[in-house]
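Work Package 3 (structural annotation) set out to generate three-dimensional models for the target panel prioritized at the project kickoff. During this period the team completed the workflow that converts sequence records into discrete structure tokens, so that structures can be stored uniformly alongside our sequence database. As a representative example, we reproduce one entry of 343 residues exactly as it appears in the project archive.
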Amino acid sequence: MAETRSAIGRYRPPQAVTAAPRQAAEADPPRNPGMPLELDWVREARVNRSAVERRAETLPKRRTVKKEWQLGWLLRAITLMDLTTLQGDDTDDRVRRLCAKARAPVRDDLLEALGFGDRPIRVAAVCVYHRFVATAVRALEGSGIPVAAVSTGFPAGLTPMAQKLAEIEASVAAGAKEIDIVITRAHVLGGDWQGLYHEVRAFREASGPAHVKTILATGELGTLRDVYRASLVCIMAGADFIKTSTGKETVNATLPVGLVMARAIRAYRERTGFAVGLKPAGGIRKAKEALDWLALMKEELGDRYLLADRFRFGASTLLADVERQLEFHVTGRYSAGHRHPLG
């Protein structure tokens, strides 16, 4: 995977920031149907680690946005967030508060001051455990914001297959429109690409109309080559998104991993014509980090990947820092974190 440099013009803010969770610059593209597993493509894949790391290191230094341009990108970042709570002490009340924040992620006074008082800003989705899907669906009724459920024995993915499939079906029946599944890492670590393909294919079929995000847990896969190969196999199996992490690993979303996954998405699109989304999750806490990811997507996959049907942030604490940056644009001062609670 050789390093490339995309020639792009001055970074501009999005033309419009809308509330729609699945913004579309074009008619909804056909859903990725998957394809038969091509083992030769998977086995022959190579990744130039030094080139990947060099590109990931230089991108944030070469591509920055300032002032009003940064404001536009920060507002767009909010519309790309899967607002998430995946804690052992989650409660129905916490989920309801999170859903209220999803409906209105930025304080009204800030939106008015920024000139967006007539443009409701909402997040892309709310992500919860299966136990709270019904609660979130009720709390988000009428908003158009979908509920995403983590599934298949999240975060380890080591429960029996029948139980994984039943969990997916139960979440869809409860109203989840998106399913974030975790793969069995042993398939990747042992080079069992057929096993991984059949597993993800079964998850896709069990999900029915719900879109599937496959969590690779990249921090546990060992090499960038295996990240690339696992990405390809999941996409071939019909994944709608590939996702970096559960957020529970020691190492979660990093730009080198994101670059490798984006290249897999691009290679599949060039071969088949079908587009697949990317979701970095875990460890993205600062607005600057979100801007770096948006720059990566713009350069590697184009402006179409700055929309929520092709790119998401898995976010729990990121929103608070983005809102602090927006307040800085208004007041010239950074506010205390408690002024921007998640719920």
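Residues 39-339 form a domain with the TIM Barrel fold (CATH 3.20.20.70).
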